[in-house]
Design a protein that fits this description.
79 residues, mainly alpha, 0% strand, membrane
């Protein structure tokens, strides 16, 4: 992290950022190797969490007021 901050503060920031990028620790094949699995894992995690929230927490969502909201009867003005 220190190397990145040092490169960011460098006057020639473009060259400093390239130096940090070239010394990166992960291989360039990381996304090709693990990207699909991570995407499916993240998707499954999100579906599981939302499935739990929607079915087990007891939250009343009240998605649409159509048919539930009724107007009050009109009151005539009494003199």
């Amino acid at each position: 992290m220190f190397r990145f901050v040092k490169a960011a503060l460098n006057v020639s920031a473009g060259q400093g950022a390239r130096q940090v990028r070239l010394s990166s620790t992960h291989s360039p094949e990381f996304h090709a190797k693990y990207g699909t699995g991570l995407m499916f894992g993240g998707f499954a995690f999100c579906v599981a969490v939302w499935g739990y929230v929607l079915t087990q927490t007891g939250i009343t969502w009240n998605l649409s007021p159509v048919g539930k909201v009724q107007p009050k009867p009109w009151r005539e003005v009494e003199e």
